[in-house]
Each structure stands twice: as C-alpha cells, then as structure tokens.
Here is the input.
Amino acid sequence: MLAKRIIPCLDVDRGRVVKGVNFVEIRDAGDPVEIARRYDAEGADEITFLDITASSDDRETMVHVVEEVASEVFIPLTVGGGIRRVEDIRRLLNAGADKVSINTAAVFNPDFVREAAERVGSQCIVVAIDAKRVSAPGEAPRWEIFTHGGRKPTGLDAVDWARRMVACGAGEILLTSMDRDGTKQGFDIELTRAVSDAVRVPVIASGGVGTLQHLVDGVTLGRADAVLAASIFHFGQHTVGEAKRFMAERGVEVRL
Amino acid sequence: MNTVAVVDYGMGNVRSVVKALEHVAPAGTRVLLTDSPEAILEAERVVFPGQGAARDCMAALTARGLDEVLRRTAADRPFLGVCMGMQVLVDYSEENGGTRCLGVLPGQVRFFGEDLREAVDGPRLKIPHMGWNQVHQIIEHPLWRDIAQDSRFYFVHSYHLQAGDPALVAATTEYGIRFTSAIARDNIFAIQCHPEKSAAPGLTLLRNFMRWNGKGSS
Here is the structure.
C-alpha cells in the first residue's frame, strides 16, 4: 500500500538555511546539504526547499544548493519560491530537483502552469496554494487565495482554484492554511479535506503543525496524501522517525 | 575502462540517475550521460531512464536514432530501464491516444483509470501514483540481492505495464490493483519506480546492476 509522506521543509536564503535549525550533532546549522542529509537519515520521504531569497541575482545560488544536495541525498527534492519561467524550472530539474513548486506566478498567469506541465511533465509541477478562510462563523466554509505572504486577497475560491490548476496540469497541490501557518494549532482540516476531495492529484497539507497528532489528523481527517512541516523537526522537538512511528501506531501507512 | 551509458534523450531529470550511479559505481567505472549512438553502443552496460509522456519519449528517441540503438543494446548487454524507460520497452502504450513503443519485450501500458479505489467502496485513489510503495519480488534475481522483500521504493506514474508473458514479471506493487512494477528477461531488467530517488534500497539495486553480468538466476 502507498505510504503517506512526511516532508520536512527548509527555508533557504542566499544558499543558507534560515529560521534556525537546532540539531545536536550538526556542525553548521545553516548548511542545506548537512541538514538534508540528516533528514534523509531520519527517514524523510522527500525534502522541500523554499527559496525565500528576494533578489533574482541570488537565485543562481539555489541551483548550486540543489546540485550539492542531489549529489548526496537520494530521495525526492522539491524547490519552491520565485519560479517565474520555464527556464527556471529546467535549470532546477537539471540540477537534480524532482519537482518545483509554483505559487504566485500561477495566480497571475495560470497559463504558465499549463506551459510548464507541457514542457517538463505534470509529475514535476507542484502548485502551491495559500488559502485563508473568508466565511463567517456559521456559514458554509469558504477559502480564498491570498498572495504576498497572505496580505493580498485575490477573490479566487481556493477549492475552485485547485481544480483549475489540476486542469492546467498541476501534478500535485501544496496546500497551506494562512490562518494556521505558524500557530502550532494543527492543519485546517476542513480546508485540507475540501481540496483533497476536489482533485484527483495528491495533496500535501501544510501550515500549523504543532504536535505529532496534527500529522495524523492531516492524513486521516484531512485525507491529505502527504504532510509538510518545518518547526517541529527543525528545533529537535521531534525527529522524522518519531513522527513516523507515532503515525504507524495510529494505523497510518508510513515508510519506516 | 568500464563504461555505463545513461541514455540522454532530452527528457526530464536524468542528472539524478547519473549522480546515484556515480555514488555506487565500482572504482574505475565511468558513468557517461550521452545521446550519442556510437557511445551507447560502445558502453559495457546501458541505463535507460525516462520521464514525461510516451509519445514525446518515442519521438525524441527516433529523432536521435536511439530506438535502434536501444533495441541492439537491450539484446546483448546488462540493460536497465527505469520508469518511462521501462514502459517504452514493450509493444504499445495507451498514453497520448495510443503510442507504438520499442517492442523489445511483449506487453502493453495502461492508464490506472479515473476511478481507482483501494476497496470497492473505499476512497478514490490519487493519480499519479506518487510516493513510496512496496515492491514485492516475484522471482529471484541478482538485482534484488540485499533488498528486503516488500521494500518501499519511490514511484511517480499514471500508467502501468502489463507484461505480455507472465514469465517476465519480476515484481508487483499494489495500488488499487496489483500491477507489474519490475520485469526481467535475460540481460534486461526494468523497473517502474525511481531507484535513484529511493534511498537505500534504490541505491542497492543500482549497485547490483553495476556489478551484474547480465545473467538472470531464475
């Protein structure tokens, strides 16, 4: 049976992992290769790098990071952040990335997703959706797409948008709840389930993980195919191995 | 010098395959990423990776004159097909409204279907089949050496292979249905998942391939 995936996510700025990673035994807490190797050893099913570099000049650095990691870590690698052109995608894939995650660029130009999927194949194209709940309490739940770190509403319904992106060729959806991101209160389960049930491609739940039970809830109640988390792994609160054993004990199929 | 040619036909991420092979190659082995027919014909062993759609893959191979090169090398030396490189070895794929493939081995490639389910009334399964699933070894083979039965490998695909001869099936995997996840005959071994992205079991399989004399053991 197919296993549910656990995906640690690393924020990378100018080639260095930021937002603090606090492992014992790691010499250089900012070195993407060392951290990726550690997550691989713990049993991570995939690793996502989010390039938060503001300047396009520094984006070249991300290509080198991917090259280095891909030479030593033999699990799938996804890169997101700042991807605007098919050329950006090709360079990352040639460097050893398996998938790229397209976010804002998709909102402003859905045809970009279509073009990218046609050129490199849907299996390489993840569309990242940042959604915020906009319905009033008591109303039927509704979520809208936001850009610019959750500051700009777009008027687009998140579930409709996910369907549209899959129709354009997205091979996977990375779904982040802007309401939950950073809160440690758990995924927005209703959102996760609504999107997962609406599309035929895999959905990665993101935003809000604070406990191992949240990971279980994401795949059981939310029906996500994979769960992405950052801080619970970075600060040594839990290892990926602990997370998997916890999930396995609760009946979730995982790769141990 | 011992050379393994990784067939480069301009599709997808073949660099990972090269990196993984370099990681496990015995000293003195050269891993050559190439689309040169001559270089591939000279290599001691051939790895045929693949991504993308069947029709594009076949078109890219034919345009480079690699279809004939693959048929020839698949006949006489250790040959490893990976993912799309497994699917186009058989006669026909129903992808892209039907694509004629290399016909090196008998078989067809089918879509998983829009309504694939774990159980009859269970939740619908996602397509592509993406992630870590178990590979159940059906035959003994030198490439399975040191790989535990039912080890998990990383898969990404929407189509699956149906062998035209049951004797070809080297492994099966369950995803709504039980499908053929590896095939083998003589000097050919081909696998649906991505060993280059499958951590320890994947690297072990590639290491075994780099040391394989091209003889099956069944």
In short: The first helix of chain B runs from residue 15 to 24. Helices of chain B lie at 15-24, 37-42, 54-63, 66-76, 84-87, 199-210. The mean pLDDT of chain B is 94. Chain B has six helices and 13 strands.
